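Support reply, case 0932

Customer input (verbatim):
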Amino acid sequence: MKCKENKDSDTNVLVASAMAAAKSLTVKHANTFAVFDQNGEIRVPDTGGDQGIYHHGTRFLSGYEFFIEHAKPLLLSSDITRDNHLITVDMTNPDVISGSSPRIKRGEIHVFRSKFLWQTRCYEKYRIKNYAGEPLDFRATVTFKADFADIFEVRGMCRERKGQFQDGRLGEQWVEIGYEGLDGIRRLTRLDFSIAPENLSVRQATFAFKLDVAEEIDFEVIVSCLMGESTTSSPDTYPIAYQESLKPLIMWRGSECDISTSNAHINSLLTRATSDMRMLLTEENGLLYPYAGIPWFCTPFGRDGLITALETLWFNPDISRGVLEYLADHQADQMNVAQDAEPGKILHEIRMGEMTNTGELPFSQYYGSADATPMFILLCGKYLQRSGDVAFARKIWPHIERALTWIDQFGDQDGDGFVEYARKTEHGIENQAWKDSFDSVFHQNGTLAEAPIAICEVQAYVFAAKKEAAFIAEQLGLNDLARNLTQQACSLQQQFEQVFWDPDLPGFVIALDKNKKPCRVRASNMGHCLFAGIASPQHARAVADLLMEDRFFSGWGVRTLAQDEPRYNPMSYHNGSIWPHDNALIAEGLARYGFKRECARVFTAMSDLGRFTELNRFPELFCGFRRRPNQGPTLYPVACSPQAWSAAAPFSLLSSCLGLSVDGLARQVRFHHPYLPIDIQKITIRNLSVGDAVIDCAVTGQAEDVSIQVTGDVSVLIHK
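Our regenerated output:
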């Protein structure tokens, strides 16, 4: 396949085929995930594709197909269960011709396939039944291959050289395909068959079947992704592994509250979002962390994890605790130019594949983001209020102090009061905010801004971080420090409004370039300034009005860039597309300043999106074309789906409309200007944790005319 040089940012994917064009079936467990086509198979063309079974950043299986008498079966249906756990596929045979007439007529053989992932393995069960009026004698073949491509190779990056493929090994009912990478790690793909094939090679297994009338036969194929020394230990059988694989799903359900509404579509949207969150939650050293997205970002990302945690904080605070502990454990403690690391800085991403292990790319443990560090502090404060866990705040306080030091000493290197970013390694990411495409920050004439760049939302996050740090310090009895941090936040707010506000936009400029020249561009970044609360009320009103104009609001949500700006392209990654998490943060900002109708408008647009997407799932992003009557949105060709901060967006949008917040310290639930979107008349929330208590609540009514009932031993504050 064609490839690109290894110089672009971590966002760039070589597009040879559109993921949005065909149905994909995606499953994940721990550090293993799989992307199958709608037949439950893996077919990667020479031009490239994302299908495969991946483990620790490497594709262990790059081809997997099933044939009946050398012919592809006909697909009847395929689906994935609502919990994202089990893939099911129904197929039948085409006409099998012998001479001039069919030897086996179409539809006489039914094939049912089911598969799931568990403990680095893909378990698949076949059930084949004869529906002909006579006995049938036929052969079935499973073909397979393994390219051991690093995830960055799959995305299109070239490599000067690769490791060494090893000779395959065969047993009576198993086959192994091996590869030793340039990182010295031996990777092995092993296929085990529950019945002995008639013929077996390193490329295919052929089975001979003789089925009487109405007879059926079952067999299993288990694909194992192994690293290190080869193992010949037999995997669990399909039934045993399946039962074991259900236990984590049952365990994680206990941490979430249960949400239902009067709108069946919204319920489906929330159910899918909950399942996606469960699938992406990954245990890392005993901590649950939401991996960013499948296929390109199935790994811990600092920014993604923090935003996901903020979006789901009221719904499941355990996610926030896992994110905070994991990022604290990986906080940088020294300078490392190759990793863009500085003392106190919070992680951007961790990669586990061969190309990062060898140092070909810097992302094995990479710190190139300016926003993750203030967002870490922001989440610490929000989590303390939500959970009431002062002991945890005291435990994590040293990490907060280091993060604050990074903001003041390393983030603001020129001492102008603003945090700037500039990559230190040429292989690092150029734009180190959430819009990290190389062309996402530019001037009014389209010229790209030069680093160091002070982007607007990072200043807003720093403002919010210092306010939250002051809140934590106060709870810990550090009153002088709390007053000092509060004053720092107020000073930053005043300076920010003076420098970043542009009355001619009207709005906040997207950034300041290295010469402190404002990038006078209308971008959705200014909505994050509302989310963080740095905007004055009058400026917030102007931003809200601007974001609701047609140049921004497409009917499906707020675009990342206004239509009349240079570099606007509704099919681009960051310059005119629509991102659910971006809209969720904007909606929270709108609600913060009391603009509930606008917040509900975003909620409705996003929920309508789910009517047209596969599995009612919010993708990573979609194109920013205006909404057309009786048509769905235009999908982005290589968007991750599921994506953690997109899956979390419905929970954030819902709480923003309700003005719902939980104060675990005060054992209080608060509703600030509750507002129900037009297509919802009732919302019921059960098992909502409030400190050491659990409550149920119901919100009924229309728009701002709502009533709220709460059952449980906590205080409730409703501000209408």
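We compared this against your earlier run and they match. Two observations from our side: The first strand starts at residue 24 and ends at 29. The longest helix spans residues 390-411. Please reopen the case if you see a mismatch on your end.
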